[in-house]
Amino acid sequence: MPLDWDKLRVFHAVAEAGSFTHAGDTLNLSQSAVSRQIQALEESLNVPLFHRHARGLILTEQGETLNKTVREVFAKLAMTEALLTESRERAAGRLKVTTTTGFGSTWLAPRLQRFLALNPEVTITLLLDDTDLDLAMREADLAIRMHPPRQPDLIQRHIATFGWKVVGSPEYLKEAGVPQRAEELDAHRLVIYGDYRPPVEDINWLAEAGRRPGSPRRAAVEVNSLPAMLRAVRSGLGLAALPDYMRDDIQDLVPVLPELKTPKVEAYFVYPEEMRNSKRVAVFRDFLVAELAVLHA
User: Fold this and answer.
1) What sign for the dihedral angle of Cα 113, 118, 122, 125?
2) Strands (DSSP E) along 42-163, which ranges?
3) Cα gap 242→250, rounded to integer Å
4) Bridge-partner residues for 256, per DSSP?
5) Which residues have C-beta within 8 Å of that of residue 65, sequence separation ≥ 6?
6) Cβ atoms 135, 255 nearer than 8 A
7) Residue 124 pLDDT class (50, 70, 90 cuts)
8) How far apart are CA 289 and CA 293, in angstroms?
9) What is the number of other CB atoms lying within 10 angstroms of the CB of residue 97?
């Protein structure tokens, strides 16, 4: 007997939600209706798909196998639907874009208005995450990453190289003095990125500048957000190294140690092979390249 698509859709919702009630809310079905669909699917397959306990549902081994396949099938269907509904002449439809919280919130988000003005039939879902969402599983259509892609089956294009600016507020530097050499940072309060999922390699290089390798300075504050680091510096808390794509946001701050040699951040535009002919991806890529050319002009 062939599998019922409606029952598979309900099964997938329950597997992702972990309960009949939450899945019912997503599907606009009653808890009892969801439960009946799952029971019917289990009976048709003659295998248990969930372990039921007081705190919710856990997939059985057979349920894990089925959910993996169902997730892939629905992801492919969503991608196919998007490609079929998109006009070959002009970009249209939703585009799910993922990038780091720092780049997405400070540089990309303020430029989306210009992109949408040029492409009024496109809508954007912006997913900010300092971990890599799985493009092959359609967690996003494309990514802007601050490192080369680690998945071999993704199309990639290098789009920018970013440096860093060490900055402080005028008030802080008046109080603490302006460092002239990297070694003088020992006498300053530093704001660095916390050690939770850093989005960029060597993001805390400032803590080691002018020090022996492996003996970083102790920071006054660690925070896992570049926008929060910026706010902390602006408040007069101390010094921080911020990527130069944030230049519009740091114009009110004072650059220090401009001759200091800093690491580079390499940015890549990444998308799965299936999106190669997507007009939405193409116009978004061209827009980014043009905007980044202005940044580096």
Assistant:
1) negative
2) 50-53, 56-59, 93-99, 122-128, 142-145, 154-162
3) 9
4) 166
5) none
6) no
7) very high
8) 6
9) 22
Q: How many residues does the chain have?
A: 297
CA gyration radius, the chain: 24
Residue pair 144/267 in contact (Cβ under 8 Å)? The answer is yes
Integer Cα distance of 163 and 219 in angstroms:
21
Query: Which of helix, strand or coil describes residue 1?
Result: coil
The amino acid present at 5, given as its one-letter code, is W
Q: Residue 26: enclosing H or E segment and its boundaries? A: helix 20-27
Question: What is the residue whose two structure tokens read 């001759």?
Answer: 259
Contacts of 198 (CB under 8 A, 6+ apart): 130, 204, 224
Contact predicate 96/82, CB 8 Å: no
Q: d(Cα 152, Cα 159) in Å, to the nearest integer?
A: 18
**Any idea which residue has 């010094």 for tokens?**
239
Mean predicted confidence (pLDDT) in 241-245: 93
Structure tokens at 203: 């993001």
Q: Beta-carbon neighbour count of residue 212 at 10 Å?
A: 7
In sequence order, which ranges of 132-211 are alpha helices (DSSP H)? Answer: 170-176
- CA dist., res. 216 & res. 209, Å (int): 8
d(CA 96, CA 78) in angstroms, rounded, equals 12
For the residues 106-127, what does the mean pLDDT come to? 94
Number of neighbouring beta carbons within 10 Å of residue 14: 28
Amino acid identity of residue 14, one-letter, is V
DSSP 3-state of 151: coil
Q: Are 70 and 12 in contact (CB under 8 A)?
A: yes
Q: Per residue in 191-227, pLDDT tens? A: 999 876 677 778 899 999 988 888 888 899 999 889 9
Q: What is the DSSP string of 237-297?
A: S-BEEEEGGGTTTSTTSEEE-TT-----EEEEEEEEGGGTT-HHHHHHHHHHHHHHHHHT-
Neighbouring C-beta atoms of residue 130, cutoff 10 Å:
19
